[in-house]
Design brief:
This protein is mainly α and 117 residues long. The chain has 5 helices and no strands. The chain is globular, with a radius of gyration of 14 Å. The model has no long low-confidence stretch (mean pLDDT 96). It holds the Pfam family HEPN.
């Protein structure tokens, strides 16, 4: 991928992240906390993919994106170490929201996730 393509891809993914965050905020205001948590995670995930695109990197799996992001941006100090915990927490809440039948998403978790994201 050449420099222009990586810049365009990073920009596109960052726009996608911003759109998903706006939707997550709308869902929070409607008190749809499960869907808010899911959409907030995908906002964070797309932002991580945007960062990876600036280095010409990506992964086909969520775990791969998170791992490569942590290696290239958190371990190097570009992003604070807290980001590792924020990403992990957001992913755990997204998985619970999307797949656990009896999971009750709390307003507090949704609010904290939106603040962190």
């Amino acid at each position: 991928m050449d420099r222009i393509e990586t810049k365009d891809l990073a920009f596109y993914r960052l726009q996608s992240a911003k759109e998903r965050l706006a939707v997550a905020e709308d869902l929070f205001n409607l008190e749809h906390h499960r869907d808010c948590l899911s959409k907030a995670y995908y906002s964070l995930f797309q932002a991580a993919r945007a960062a990876l695109a600036t280095l010409g990197l990506d992964s086909r799996k969520h775990s791969g994106v998170i791992s490569v992001f942590n290696i290239n941006f958190v371990k190097t100090g570009i992003f604070p170490k807290e980001y590792r915990k924020i990403i992990a927490s957001s992913q755990d809440l997204r998985l619970a929201s999307d797949y656990d039948d009896f999971y009750l998403a709390s307003k507090q978790d949704a609010k904290k996730t939106l603040k962190d994201v």
